[in-house]
Specification:
By secondary structure, the chain is mainly beta. The protein has two domains: 156 residues; 32 residues, no CATH class. It has no helices and 14 strands. The chain has an eight-stranded antiparallel beta sheet, with no helix packed on it.
Length: 197
């Protein structure tokens, strides 16, 4: 169970560029990243790198507009999180960030040309960063398209607090699992449930 979401980093561009760098932040096990890229013209293809790693340590599976899945392995980044049309991009990425395990992520992104006559293009992507030594403490949103991120484009990184909310703090409370019929007793000293046998 996660606690509340906390903002770990927020960086907005003050001038056009092809990278939005979160800077270093405190690692959390569960993270959410929001990227808003305002296009200057031409395409804006947003991909991420973690901890400045541009080695071939990323693998992804993706679908564009509900089409068939495709895969890219041994990549230098997360691959393009958004569509391929000219316009603005927006993506949310959920990350499981455990130091000793590969970092798994799920992304939902879109790219949209201006005007009500242009439907957005959507992209669903799942992937991993195959690092099993370090937690993610820095994220860079790179642009691989022909345009740039305009001023005001931003990255926001959120992390779940490490506070665990328990249902009770009363010592010796009893809990019964509906599906198994097992009974557990709460031990306030160890802050844990113990099965009653």
């Amino acid at each position: 169970m996660v606690g509340t979401w906390q903002r770990l980093a927020h960086v907005a561009l003050s001038s056009a560029g092809d990278t939005i760098d979160s800077g270093t932040f405190t690692a959390k096990k569960n993270m959410k990243v929001i990227i808003s890229g305002i296009g200057t013209g031409g395409t804006v293809n947003c991909n991420l790198t973690f901890n400045s790693d541009t080695g071939t340590n990323y693998a992804i599976r993706e679908s564009v507009n509900g089409g068939s899945d495709s895969t890219n392995v041994s990549q230098a980044n997360t691959d393009n999180l958004t569509g391929t049309v000219t316009g603005n991009v927006f993506a949310t990425v959920h990350i499981l960030n455990e130091a000793s395990k590969e970092k798994l992520f799920i992304s939902e992104g879109l790219e949209s040309a201006s005007g009500a006559g242009n439907a957005p293009e959507r992209k669903e992507l799942v992937g991993k960063w195959a690092n099993t030594s370090n937690q993610i403490t820095r994220i860079i949103a790179n642009n691989g398209g022909t345009g740039s991120y305009a001023s005001g484009s931003y990255i926001t990184v959120l992390g779940a607090s490490d506070d665990v909310v328990s249902d009770t703090t009363d010592n010796n409370s009893i809990f019964e699992e509906n599906d198994t019929g097992k009974h557990f007793i709460w031990n306030a000293t160890s802050d844990s449930w113990t099965e009653i046998t």
